[in-house]
Design a protein that fits this description.
The protein is an all-alpha fold and 96 residues long. Helices cover 56% and strands 0% of the residues.
Length: 96
């Protein structure tokens, strides 16, 4: 019997299109968990390329990895820089 090789799940590998990324971020925003949202931005950044995001935001790759790990607690200004650099826009919607 052959052995099965397992490896950790990496969400970034499954975000192929802009639409995939937007739907993923929207789903995380709906949960309302700040750590999950930061993590989602990190996953999207990884799918796009963290080096380019670092250039676009003016932040170091290391600080981005830390802030967007889901364990960090990024400042809102950092989150907004990342959102803008990724080409996204956050919007508000009344909850009914």
């Amino acid at each position: 019997m052959g052995s099965t090789k397992l490896r950790p799940w990496d969400s970034a590998e499954h975000l192929k299109t802009e639409e995939d990324m937007v739907f993923y971020l929207e789903a995380c925003l709906e949960e309302g968990d700040a750590a999950l949202i930061a993590h989602a931005l990190g996953v999207i950044a990884k799918a796009r390329g963290m080096t380019q995001l670092a250039r676009d935001t003016g932040l170091s790759r290391e600080s981005l990895y830390k802030a967007l790990s889901g364990e960090g607690n990024p400042e809102f200004a950092t989150v907004m820089k990342v959102v803008k650099a990724l080409g996204f826009r956050l919007h508000a919607e009344a909850v009914t």
